[in-house]
What we know:
α3 runs antiparallel to α5. This protein has 106 residues and is an all-alpha fold. The protein has helices at residues 2-18, 27-51, 57-65, 67-79, 85-103. It folds into two domains: 1-54, no CATH class; 56-106.
Amino acid sequence: TAINFVLALLLIIPIALFIPDQTNTSPYGILLAIISGSITSGLGYTLWYWILPKINITSASIAQLSVPLIAALGGYLFISETLNWQFYIASFLILGGIGLPYLFKK
C-alpha cells in the first residue's frame, strides 16, 4: 500500500500546480497533513493486517462495509458535521447490507 500512496502523490503534484489555491496553505501545514495521514494510515493498515488472519473472510468483508458509516460518525463526533437525511438513508442501506449475511446464513 505504500506504493499506492507514492503513486497518488506523483499524480496529484502536477494536477495541483494547475489548480488555483483558494485556501491558506503553508508548507508546514502540508507537512503536518502528510505526516498525520501517513501515521494514521500506517496504524490503520497495521491493525487491519494484524487482525485479518484472526477472523474469517466473511467477517472481514462485513467489517469493510462499515467503514463509510464509521467515517461519517467520526465526522459527526469529532468535527461537528451535521447528519442529514442522506446520512440516515445511507446508514440504513449499509446496516441492511451488513445484516443480510446473518439473515441468510447457511
